[in-house]
Specification:
The structure holds two protein chains of two kinds. Chain A has strands at residues 5-7, 10-13, 19-24, 31-38, 42-50, 53-57, 64-68, 74-78, 87-94, 106-107, 111-115. In chain A, strands 2, 4, 5, 6, 9, 10 and 11 form a seven-stranded mixed sheet that branches. Chain A is mainly beta. Chain B has no helices and twelve strands. In chain B, the strands form three sheets. In chain B, strands 2, 5, 6, 10, 11 and 12 form a six-stranded mixed sheet that branches. In chain B, strands 3-9-8-7 form a four-stranded antiparallel sheet, with no helix packed on it. Chain B is mainly β. Chain B has strands at residues 3-5, 10-14, 19-21, 24-26, 33-39, 46-52, 60-61, 64-69, 74-79, 88-95, 100-102, 106-111. Classes of the chains: A mainly beta, B mainly beta.
Chain lengths: 116, 112
Amino acid sequence: DSGVTQTPKHLITATGQRVTLRCSPRSGDLSVYWYQQSLDQGLQFLIHYYNGEERAKGNILERFSAQQFPDLHSELNLSSLELGDSALYFCASSDETSGGLSDEQFFGPGTRLTVL
Amino acid sequence: AQKITQTQPGMFVQEKEAVTLDCTYDTSDQSYGLFWYKQPSSGEMIFLIYQGSYDEQNATEGRYSLNFQKARKSANLVISASQLGDSAMYFCAMRGFQKLVFGTGTRLLVSP
């Protein structure tokens, strides 16, 4: 158990819908990262938040957005869903105390999104 | 841009034998970190081992060791004494600015 929690574990929805994925980082970790794992794209970085502020964006679609709240939990919002958005979405957290390079990212169990 | 290449889509090994999973990387950064993660069929990502670009010694964590050859830009994972529970996908990753860049992974199957 990494200490990172993600809800829901599974989500099945229809094209055009909107969903919200939730992540609670490990106690004390200020950084939250979101990744998407799909069969065709592999593991892709989406976005990084640190203590409530967006720090970096990766291959995140405009239909997707995220935020990190004062209690440090984070939500990833996916809208106007398409079949190709079906994937495993991971949240990872890190304490970033050693300056970045060696900071291990602890991954949550993931949310498996299926768009029908 | 950073890139991780894992050229072995699948590897087979017998229980109790050692196996090496290949990873090469490309970066223009002087400082970087290299990670290996294991993803069992249940889906979670499990951290295995870390190597810093300035570390002179190869990293070891129990049965896992990282064969780091900086000049060749390779960071191969060596699993000694394979166990049935080692069957999983293995991902090599590089820590770049604010994110991890992952390779495509190697599926390892350990047979009795």
